[in-house]
Amino acid sequence: MLQVRSAIAIDDKYASPKEHFESVVAKLQHLNVAEKHIRFLWDVFIYAEKMHGLQKRQSGELYIHHPIEVCDILSQFTSDHQALAAALLHDTVEDTAATTEELQNLFGSGVASLVSGLTKVSQVKFLSKQEKLAENFRRMVLTMAKDLRVVIIKLCDRLHNMRTIEVLDIDKGKRIAKETLDIYAPLAHRLGIYSLKSELEDLCLKLLKPEIYNDIAQKVSRRREERYVEIEEVKTVLREELALYGFKQAEITGRSKHFYSIYKKMVVRKLLFEEINDLIAFRVVVDSVKDCYEILGLVHSLWKPQPGRFKDYIAMPKANRYQSLHTTVIGPGGSLAEIQIRTKEMHQVCEYGVTAHWLYKEKQEGFKGDHHETFSWLRQIVEWQKDVTDSAEYITTLKVDLFDHEIFVFSPKGDVFRLPHKATPLDFAFSIHTGVGLKTRAAKVNQRIVPLHHTLKNGDIVEIITSDTQKPGKNWLSIVTTSRAKSKIRSYLRSEEREVHRQLGKSLFIQELEQENISFDKFIKNSSWLDKVTRWSRVSSLDEFLIHVGFGKISPKNVLTRLLEKSSKKEDFLGKAFKKEESKSQKGVKSGVGQQGGIMVSGLDNVLITIAKCCRPIPGDEILGYVTRGRGVTIHRFDCEKGLDLDPARRIDVCWSDKANRSSVHEVGLRVETKDKPGVASEVTSCISACGASIIKANIHLNKQNVGVFYIKISVKSLEELQSIMAKIECIAEVLSVERWS
Question: Of 94, 102, 215, 673, which residue is the catalytic one?
Answer without folding.
Answer: 94
